[in-house]
Structure formats: structure tokens, C-alpha cells
Amino acid sequence: MSEIIVRGDIVVQEVATRDGFQIEPVFVPTHEKIRLIDALSAAGFTRIEVSSFVSPKAVPALADAAEVFSGIARRPGTTYVALVPNPRGAERALAARADEINLVASVSETHNRANMGMTPEASIQGFAAIMTTVRGEVGVNATVATAFGCPFEGPEPEDKVLAQVERYLSLGVDGVTLADTTGMANPRQVARLVARALPLVGSERLTLHFHNTRGCGLANVLAAYEAGARRFDAALGGLGGCPFAPGATGNICTEDLVSMAEEMGLATGLDLDALLALSRDLPRLVGHDVPGQVAKAGRPLDLHPAPPLRAA
Amino acid sequence: MSEIIVRGDIVVQEVATRDGFQIEPVFVPTHEKIRLIDALSAAGFTRIEVSSFVSPKAVPALADAAEVFSGIARRPGTTYVALVPNPRGAERALAARADEINLVASVSETHNRANMGMTPEASIQGFAAIMTTVRGEVGVNATVATAFGCPFEGPEPEDKVLAQVERYLSLGVDGVTLADTTGMANPRQVARLVARALPLVGSERLTLHFHNTRGCGLANVLAAYEAGARRFDAALGGLGGCPFAPGATGNICTEDLVSMAEEMGLATGLDLDALLALSRDLPRLVGHDVPGQVAKAGRPLDLHPAPPLRAA
């Protein structure tokens, strides 16, 4: 079981190589993925979601998950996570020596059927089988996808989300993630759901996963933080995206989140300058501009020379 | 003096045709500006910053300010504002029948010299002269630019910002804006400064002007709202920008702000669907994509048909 290391005031789990790369039309070469993950480890991340053991036919961009896990340098103190949808995926993740597996089922039946080809109940029964197999061998996190709304069904009742959280906890998972899978959350909703989930899960085990699809990703982080949440998923450059909105941004952007947090006086344990350099290299890897703002604008206190005086 | 109309829970002042268009390299034709402002009036704005009476040489994009003011349809209940840097600009704004003038001076001496060609003290002495001339004829708002930091000087002391606010109030202005001119603010700083400014200014007269340069514009709105602020500037499509960061976004995006507010249950009095249609037309006017997210992704509850089921 992986140890959860809380170095600073908030913990950022980097998900670019999983949630980001999975929807890219280009296949990022395996050696580039490994190089990026090693650089992320060096930048100070204690948690990196490396890849996903899903069907390579469904997600060809991550077909090299095992090679990536075997190629990366394991930095002591960093937990390398694999997303896993089902027992077959869990076996592959264990074989690849993932430190932690992240099980994902949607609270929306329609979304889970579309995404996983089964009901949420069938997914969760698979998780119970996985827990029996892996208990003690790796850490297990479980994610409630579409927790803040489903693009097919609309809003999901909070009681249903919390029932799924309790179900996960009864299986003995080490952590729970509430995921705003397609960026539908608003800050008031976030504050309410976090306030209800925290007493069940605890701030050291609860992760919030936001997308910036409608521009309020960091506002949702702020609302979650003020409600007591301390762990957040984010993707370098704001990689990721929404299959229904080609121009929309994806996950909240790691370096924008880290910049905001550090400016607020919240320690992240991360080297922001290193993150900015890595983010500025992403267009080379994915073949397009990425949404992150601080990489374009510079840090707030990167000052500029004053221009020549204008005549009055 | 213009009446401040608070229709809903927050008041959004639209600034796209001023703060947005002023940095565009293309000149948006006068009839298009008029058409857009009339459409914004119809969408429910009670406050629109129409244009700026600055030197046409310094800001050629707004050289048609007087023609725009004379061409727009004045909707009852909407205040049409003109930005004014000096007494000459105030005369032109009065001649154009602006309902309100917005006086701007930076708290940063370096920024004010670069932007206005004079010290902040000289700017404010000019405002005193303007107040003597216009008192009772038009409403007057006064803006503290670089209130959350200057791109040349760095952080500005809060006491200095508040001293400028008090100076404005002693001149008899009707409203005060704290402007994050180049997007350097963070939510904790915003909460602190709003908490200090509100007892002086009052929530009905205090406006927050944020840029999304580093991605946390809406988080700053949330922090300001929670600290008691109710009035916000925003630009359709997130127009605007930062002269030091060509790829960075500009003002906070009106329709993204309105979407977030309405999802939170805060009334804005605005027709979001109309705003989205206007935002989607902006690339035609300015010749490039604009940063607004909701116009690309759709409203959170614009649902999608479920895809065909995947085999398990």
C-alpha cells in the first residue's frame, strides 16, 4: 500500500500523461512519455498518474502503459498511479509494478455504459473482486466519475454520489476521488459536496478532479480548498479535453494551479519554474498549443522593464 | 448622475468594446461597434463601458468614441460609461453624452507615467479639476489601476491602494474600481483588499476589474464575492489582453462569469444565450479566436445524446 505524502499545504497529482495524452490524436512516443514523467518526478510531484490499463483498442494513445511503467525512474517518495477500469486492467497494473491503482466508475449509469460498457453496479462488483486480489499489494484509489453532472443525464443527485463514496470505502480503498469528468461543476456545488464527503473520507484521502471546460476550474479548486479539500488532480499545460467540445480546455492546468496556490501562500512542494519549462515543451509533443496561461504570461512577479515615458 | 441599478445578485459591467477592442490590431468598424453595444443592451446589461476618450494617436482602435456614443440606442436603465484619462477626455465624454465617466490612475507611479505620461498625483489633480467641472452632470467612477500589482514595480502596498481609494472618495466620486490591470491578483490578496475597501466604498459602489492573464480570474471573482463584492467588470469572449504576453488571455470572460454565477444560483439579469451568440460572432470582428470557454463547450446543462453502447 502506498503512503500518502503530504509535503505542503496542498497536494497536486499530475495526470497529464494519462488524462491529457489519452485524447490526443497523435501517439506521444514512449521515450518522450518516460522523459516527461521523470522530469515531473524531479519537479517534486509526490503523485503522478502515469497511464491507464484500458483496452489499447479503446485508447490507442496509452497502449504503451506497461513499457512506460518499466521505463520510468522511480523517485523515492513518489507514488506512480495507474488508472484501471476492470480486473484485467488491475492484473496488468500489478505486473507493471504500479504503486497504486485508480478504479473508475461513473455515478451516471448512461456515462458508465458508454465509457465502460457496463452498469456502474457491474463496475463496482469488479472493484470488489480486484480488492480481494490486490489487498495489501498496492494502494487503491477509487474515483466517482461524473460526480458533478453527466453530459447525457445532467445533474446527479448528491445522495447517489455519496452512496458510491460509501460503497468504495466499504471495499477498503485508500482514497476517493470526486471527478468533474466533463467540467460541469460550479463552486457552490463543489463546496456543498466536499463538505458532505470530507467527514466520510477525510482530507488526506479525498482528491478533487476538475476540468476547466467552462473556465471556472480554479474557482472550483478555491471553493473545494475553502471547504477543506487538500488534494487536487491537474494536468500540465491544461492538457485533456472534452469529447463533446473540440475547442474547450481540458483538466485544470497544473502550473496555473501551482502559481495561484503559491501566490496565496500555500506550499505545493513543486518547482514552478521547472513546470513552466515542461509545459512550454508540450506543443512539440502534442502538435498544438495548450491552454495553460502562466506558461504564456509568465509568473505574476516576472517583472518587465518600464517602457520609455510618453509625453503627457 | 447615473443611477446604479442592481437588478440581480451581482452586477456585470461589460467592457469588451473598450478594454477589449483597445488592444486589437484591427479597427472594428464603427457600425459593428454600435450593433454590438445595442445587442449588449438588449441582453440586459445595466452598465456598458462603451469606449475611451483617450488620444486617438495612442489608441487608434477607439478613435471613433464620439461616433459610437452618438450611434447607439440608449436603453432606459442602462448606464453608458466612457473611460477618461484627463480633463480634455472628460470634455469630449460630456459632449458625447456619456452617462458616466470612468477616471483611471495607477497606484504604480511607473505604470502611470508609462500609461498616462504623468505621475499618479498629476492624474488625480486632473480628476479634481474634472469633478469641479462635471459635478451633477454625469456620474463619475474612479479606477485604481495596478491595484493588485504592477508589471514594472511588482506588488503595491495595500495602504497605498486604500489611500488612493480615500482620495477618490474625498473628490466625491460615485463609484470606485479596483483593477487588476495585468492579471497579477490571487484570491487571498483579493479577499484581503476587498475586505478593507468595502467599509470605505460600500458594495453598491465598489467594482472589481479582473484579468484572466494567469488563469485565476474567476477564482478571484469568487474570492471577491465571498468577501462581499457584488460588481464586476468583464469582457465578452474574454477579449482584452496583456501587452507583455501575446498569448495570454485578457479580461475575465463575461459569458463564463455569467454561466458560473447562474449555476451558483446568483442572478445576473443577463440573457446568457444571447451573450453566447454574440461571443461566437467575435472572431469575425477581431479576426482571431477568443478565449471564452462556455461559447465553445456550451452551457453545463446543454446535454448530449448518449453514444452507442460499447461492448464490455
Task: Describe the protein's topology.
2 copies of one chain form a homodimer.
Chain A: E1 11-14, H1 16-20, H2 30-42, E2 47-52, H3 65-71, E3 79-84, H4 87-95, E4 100-106, H5 109-116, H6 120-134, E5 139-145, H7 158-171, E6 175-179, H8 187-201, E7 206-209, H9 217-226, E8 231-234, H10 254-263, H11 272-280, H12 282-286, H13 294-297
Parallel strand pairs in A: 1-8, 2-3, 3-4, 4-5, 5-6, 6-7, 7-8
What shape does the CA trace of chain A take? globular
Count helical runs of chain A.
13
- Which runs of chain A of at least 5 residues are low in confidence (pLDDT < 50)? 1-7
Q: What's the order of the H and E elements of chain A?
A: EHHEHEHEHHEHEHEHEHHHH
How many discrete structural domains of chain A? Answer: 1
As an assembly, this protein is homodimer
**Could you name the CATH class of chain A?**
Alpha Beta
The count of DSSP E runs of length 2 or more, i.e. the number of strands of chain A, is 8
CATH architecture of chain A: Alpha-Beta Barrel
Looking at the structure, the CATH topology of chain A is TIM Barrel
Give the strand order of the largest sheet of chain A, numbering strands 1, 2, ... along the chain. 1-8-7-6-5-4-3-2
Separation of termini of chain A? 67 Å
